Here is the input.
Amino acid sequence: MADGFRQTSDDLTRMARLYSVTGDPIYRDYFLEILDIRNGAAPRPAEYFRVYWDFVVDGGQRPRAGTPAVSFDDLARQAGFTDAEFALLRQSEENSNLLAELEAQALQAQTPAELAEARQTLHGPEYHREKARIMQPLDSLLSATADRATATQDKRRSAGQTLTISIMLLLALSGLLSAAGLVVAVKSRGQG
Here is the structure.
């Protein structure tokens, strides 16, 4: 999920920059569509985590059909993010929305001079600083989810080891009880 959000941010950057270089309004349309998909206002392409926009940019063909619209926030909730993880995603999304405003301003450029200014904006130090502000909480989110997955794995491994030891002890106890029963049975026959 976090990597998918990162990809969305990179796709928005790509479309804004393509527009600033070409002036082709299709890139502005793609930019707005990416935002709508992320916000749950447009259908989400099936398996959106796979390569998608590279195929669309190369001729406008959609590689997969859309699925019902669902926001990124709802997907994160469905994925079981903890409150702390969700807060990091939220922070990244808020920072991304601020950068999207800067990108949207660049998408208003019409004249060659405005497009040149848009290119400078989309490649300048302020843009890179804002982009890094998006990625910082995402990086923390990736670390947090990896830590949680490792902890879950460790708990399962420990539970598995406990179960294995319990089974071995039960088998040993069963063997001892069987041996004791056999000894009692042999002694009973010997006395009888």
Remarks:
- The mean pLDDT is 88.
- The first strand starts at residue 44 and ends at 45.
